[in-house]
Amino acid sequence: MELKEISPKVTVSPQIAASDMAAIKSAGYRAIICNRPDGEGADQPSFEEIEAAAKAEGIEARYVPVQSGMVTDDDVAAFGQALAEVQRPVLAYCRTGTRSATLWSLHEAKKRPVSEILAMTKAAGYDMNGVARRVANGGKTPTDTGDAHYKVVIVGAGAGGIAVAASLKARKPGLEIAIIDPADIHYYQPGWTMVGGGIFEAQETAKTMGSLIPKDVTWIKAAVAAFEPQNNAVILDGCRVVKYDRLVVCPGLKLDWGKIEGLVETLGRNGVTSNYRYDLAPYTWQLVQEMRGGTAVFTQPPMPIKCAGAPQKAMYLSADHWHRSGRLKDIDIHFCNAGGVLFGVKDYVPALMEYVKKYDATLDFFHNLVAVDGPAKKATFEVKEPEKEPRRVEMEFDMMHVCPPQTAPDFIRVSPLADQAGWVDVDQATLRHKSFDNIWALGDVMNAPNAKTAAAARKQAPTVAENIVADIAGRSAVAQYDGYGSCPLTVERGKIVLAEFGYGGVVMPSFPSFVIDGTKPSRAAWFLKEKMLPPIYWQAMLRGREWMAKPAKLEVAAE
């Protein structure tokens, strides 16, 4: 816990944990204000967890969530009202403390000189010069000049962002690159299925961000508020401005936990879990081990989602454990899928159906989870079958694994970079933006019709790097992405159906069928997933070593 006092009455801090509350009380704080929306990070406790811990210590808790980097005048007013109503001293927190410091600064700008605000926030470790410019500019951040300028700016330090930075550095070692990302920890998210199945430990899937960002790449530890592509500018939290010659956009997806009524309040308790959150994947394995009988429900929301096979992987690994321990006959398994097929590429469905039969799982298609009552252990689904009236059904459960609805992050959806559906609008071959020719995108946030997997980003990063280097040299795009994605479907402990496919669902195997036949469960594919893919991720993909990921040459259609 890192408390940063701005004034005798207001302190700000990065994300706090429920376990910090006793120390917060002993430090004399009478109230806390949460400025971070639920579901923003993969390792983030919900406000409800924080509030319960605060109440237990006699501390008042207020929820004034502000979208990352997007502090509006209404947010400032809500923050000011909360400050007026709670007892002080008060602790306000967000992911890094910057949003809370920005809210305080803009609130105080009505009554304090800007110079005094800058001095107080600087003493607490926050640079509010951008806020000062916003105040001086009538509430709008000017982007004609910036706080920094780089040849290439990359938004997002997930799999795609670090991989493309490393691939660019491998091609042009002297290239001036900055990565913008507020997170301290980088996660190997494909490993969370294995954590939920008792194969990996959670800590094996996490490394510090600073240890992974390539040497000589500047890490700007901040959230993005907005894009102004006409000025080649990115606006950060704290109203700072970063200018670029070329921009790469890859911030990943937003997990929209709040879209399902009652879910946030019950996650991590009452038998409700999800492998889509770092801190909950171990709870999945705990529930699987404890389950002796009853109903186990596994859900999948409408597409698009990252790794479309992950919801059913959780089902297979859980069922396999119950099968091996002799409990399967006493457990009723339901796979509730908002879509109408088990898997989108038909070549892999026969092998998967064999396991559905083996585990005697019921496939409930067109079932979209809309509400959860954790204490009552009831789930409500909206059922929209073709040519039938929509209806709602209730299902009781003893254990439920939830895959949350997923969207592009808010700052992407409202930006000039997005298409009508909210995704970054790119050419699906070159990954260059369709309207701004010095912008590229990769990973889960762009609108190419490929599967949103880490394997896809592994192929996209060299393509983007190759095309940016060509652009710097004054040439046209030279590389193309073929839509490749991979989904290792963990059908049982020790066997995987290795789905590999490109645009249009075309099967694209990486190995000869005598090594791995992806349409059949194999031990070789399990060995690849368990033993080889994690080091390939950490030591090759994130280091610019493009093993089995060399970019394909762009095929230019004849005139």
UniProtKB/TrEMBL annotation:
Q: Name the cofactor(s) required for activity, per the record.
A: FAD
| Pfam families linked | BLH_phosphatase (PF04273), Pyr_redox_2 (PF07992)
Domain FAD/NAD(P)-binding, first and last residues per copy: 150-263
List the GO biological process terms.
Answer: sulfide oxidation, using sulfide:quinone oxidoreductase
Instruction: Please verify whether the record's keywords include Oxidoreductase.
Output: yes
**Annotated keywords:** FAD, Flavoprotein, Oxidoreductase, Quinone, Transit peptide
Say yes or no: keyword Oxidoreductase present.
yes
Superkingdom of the organism of origin:
Bacteria
Instruction: Spell out the InterPro entries in the cross-references.
Output: BLH_phosphatase-like (IPR005939), FAD/NAD-bd_sf (IPR036188), FAD/NAD-binding_dom (IPR023753), Prot-tyrosine_phosphatase-like (IPR029021), Sulphide_quinone_reductase (IPR015904)
Q: What is this protein called?
A: TIGR01244 family phosphatase
According to its UniProt entry, this protein's organism is Paracoccus suum
